[in-house]
Amino acid sequence: MRTCPVLAVASGLALFAALIGAAPVWAHHSFGATFDANKPVSITGVLTKVQWTNPHSHLYLDVKDKDGPVVAWVFEGYPSVVLYRTGWSRDGTIKIGDTLTVVGWRARDDSPFALGREVTLPSGKHLFFGPLSGTGEGAAVAPGN
Amino acid sequence: MSGMSPRVRGAAAGVVAVVVIASSVQVAAGVDQTSPGNAALPRPAAPPRTPDGKVDLSGVYQSSPKRGEWDPSAPGQGGGPENEPPSLLPAARQRAQELLNRRSIDDPTAYCLLAPGPRMTGVILFPIQFVQTPGQVVIIYEYFNAVRIIPTDGRPHPDDAEPTYQGDSVGRWDGDTLVVDVNNFKEGNWLAAGIVSSDKLHITERYTRIDKDQLNYEAVIEDPELLAKPWTIRRTLMLREGVRVREYVCAENNLDPARYQEYLKRPSLFMRSPDQAQPR
Question: Which pLDDT tens digit goes with each residue over B114-144?
Fold first, then answer.
């Protein structure tokens, strides 16, 4: 299983998120309630299921360690309506059995669950799959404090 | 204008001409301020007008400072210029801090409930469609598939309106700007993370399509139980030709409420400590 917690790409995303952290955030669900911005991951696995739904889509990947068991990972991302405009098509972009790499941030409870920010397709193409870390949870300190 | 006398028609045409010139000046002043990347684009056309000479707001837009096609790299934050933070009353500030410490799991939108216009307008991931007809402007937000029907025929707020998430809207034209007065909100709306309004919330929105591409949005928010002074939010909406508003049923697969109930059994897992100054 490849779980590189300090991949350069993921760190770059986290840094970008930190830089925009002071700006108002206007999204749907709280990133920080579920995911930890200090746990960037990059996971490669085989696609077993796609949940193309609102308000979130999910990718299910079987991730195999050299010596260990296969771990079923779940990646949460944008709603399906947003994915259409982000370059995905429901039936044409990925298929079951594809090997994908997903970069994102792991759940706080350390379960094999993460927010997927970007997916690398078998062709090598990259597509955004979810928002940046920090989206939707608000600042740490209330305005005026 | 067929029912007008020649004199009135001439005066109306003059007004339209002045307005067009004024708009062109705004275009020249406004283009390059939105984004350096827009400077290379050709000067946008004047905004379209309806047969009665009003600027036509109709179109599909994205909250974004960038002209052109849909911007897919959206990080999830609102588009447009920086906005100043609200001046919260002490009790509201304390409440906001408590809600932020809970990482906003109490946000009604996490339960697929709607939010007032200023927040809906800033959501960058979902298009917003304006449909303008004589006497009425309809705003269709893909986000939650919310709809606002705004009469512009001079009628007042109805006296039997129930408080709602998006409030009751009545509009009027101030030159080329649509001014919308919004009241009768439910209490407990989230204007932003942790910023919760009362049933005294009153919002004055101004929609100005300064050219074919760009629709400027300004909302002045008043709430005597939340704010020490009015809070102004500005957004930039950009026309996205060819983009269509789709169905978005948030209740289809909303897993968060059940998750949050589980998290609350282990609050140390996700909550910020009250004295924590930085996010972790």
Answer: 999 999 998 889 999 999 999 999 999 999 9
